[in-house]
Amino acid sequence: MYGWLLCPATGRVLIQEQDDGIFSLPGGTPEPFDADLDATLAREAFEENQVRISVTTAYLGYQEVRQPGRPVFAQLRMAGIITEFAARAPDPDNGRLNRRYMTSLAAAPACWAGGSPPRRRPAPPPRRDAGGDCPSTARPPLATRTEPMPSLRGPRNPA
Fold first, then answer.
1. What is d(CA 90, CA 97) in angstroms, rounded to the nearest whole number?
2. pLDDT digits over 57-82, tens only?
3. The domain that contains 134 carries what CATH number?
């Protein structure tokens, strides 16, 4: 699962840069103790980036991932609204300290070449987060909605 985590003040999305130079959206695999997909996204967002999100998320769809020698699987895409940036800390799963960036929805896919798996990029994406609230921007926000997004979740097991 990958999460498009949006700042309600600017309409920008969070992307992360791992210590090896790989850019991606926050995300991971559901754990047995996660109550649902909302809980998985919230846990992964906090573990990887120390970002809290609204309780309600939106299911955006999935991508079928095919890798040589591995079974085909569906990688979900979810969206959530950022409610808080906490102090940065290492991911408890791998010890990495990811760098957080906020960028426009239009520019985000170019940061990791728009595909799966994420790729190395020589230059960082625009607007690094200083570690506090959503960064200010000279442009008007893409969205000003601050209440939680309605859940758009569809069937959990697409055919």
1. 4
2. 999 999 898 989 999 988 899 999 99
3. 3.90.79.10
Alpha-carbon gap, residue 59 to 19, rounded angstroms? 29
Instruction: List the domain range (segments joined by +) for residue 140.
Output: 1-159
Residue 77 tokens read as 């895409």
How many angstroms separate the CA atoms of 29 and 44, rounded? Answer: 8
CA dihedral 108, 14, 121, 60 (to 10 degrees): -50
Instruction: Please state the pTM of the whole predicted model.
Output: 0.70
Give me the number of domains the chain comprises: 1
At 93-150, the pLDDT tens digits run: 889 899 999 988 888 887 765 444 444 444 444 444 434 444 433 333 333 333 333 3
Distance CA 27, CA 24 (A): 9
Instruction: Look at residues 1, 2, 5 and name the one whose alpha carbon lies nearest to residue 105.
Output: 5
Task: Write out the two tokens for 38.
Answer: 């909302």
